[in-house]
Amino acid sequence: QVQLVESGGGLVQAGGSLGLSCAASGSIFSINTMAWYRQAPGKQRESVAAISSGGSTNYADSVKGRFTISRDNAKNTVYLQMNSLKPEDTAVYYCFAAVTTTQPMGGMFRYWGQGTQVTVSS
Q1: DSSP letter (8 states) at residue 103
Q2: Which residues fall within 8 angstroms of residue 31, CB to CB, at 6 or more apart?
Q3: Residue 99 · residue 2 · CB < 8 Å
Q4: How far is residue 95's CA from residue 59's CA, in Å, rounded to a whole number?
Q5: Predicted local distance difference test score (pLDDT) of residue 85
Q6: What is the pLDDT of residues 44-62, one digit of tens each?
Q7: pLDDT at 52
Q8: Percent of the chain whose predicted confidence (pLDDT) is above 90
Q9: Does residue 93 contact residue 48 with C-beta atoms inside 8 Å?
């Protein structure tokens, strides 16, 4: 089994910055895509940013130029650096990873973190 543990959420004023981390552990052979999603109250979950195993990135239009996704493959960890935060960024942020496992060998599964609250005050 694989688990994703998120950290770094909190309360910040508009214009401020916050960094999120997500570490994967367990029966991991390799991790392909890692990504961040978010869900605001009463809203659908949306993709924020994604990064491939080779480092290619994609961002939602709403966060381009403000957020940066990165990863450390040796640590099986993905990061989201959030700058120039706006009240509309307030949401629960979820880490995602597409994992090839060692148990079962060669299995391919999608995993989600527990979510971490980010609140941006005006």
Answers
A1: T
A2: 24, 53, 73, 76, 97, 98, 99, 100
A3: yes
A4: 14
A5: 98
A6: 999 999 999 999 999 999 9
A7: 97
A8: 98
A9: yes
